[in-house]
Amino acid sequence: MADRRRPRVLVAGMQYELNSFVAGTAGLERFRQFRMAEGDAVFAVAKGEEVDGALRVARTRGVELVPVFLAFGGAGPVLEDGVYDHFRDRILAGVRAHRGAIDAIYLPLHGAMATVSEPDTEGDLITRIRAIVGPDLPIAASFDMHCNFTAGMERGLDAALGFKTCPHVDYVETGMRSLEILADTLAGTIRPRLVHRKLRMMTPAEGHDTNTGPMRDVIAQLRDLETRPGIVAATVIAPQPWMDVPETGWSILVVVDGDANVELGRREADRIARLCWDMRERFLVRRTPLAEALDIAAANPEGAKPVVMTDAADAPSAGSYGDSAVVLEALLARPRMRGPFLMTMTDPAAARACEAAGIGATLRLRFGGAFQPAFFKPVDVEATVRDLIRAPYESQLPPGTIDPGLRAVVEIAGFVRMVIAERQMATLDLRPYESSGLDPRRAQAVLVKSAGQFRGFYTAIAARILELDTPGPVNGILTQLPFRHLTRPLWPFDADLAAPW
Ligand SMILES: [Zn+2]
Question: Are residues 362 and 226 in the same domain?
Answer without folding.
Answer: no
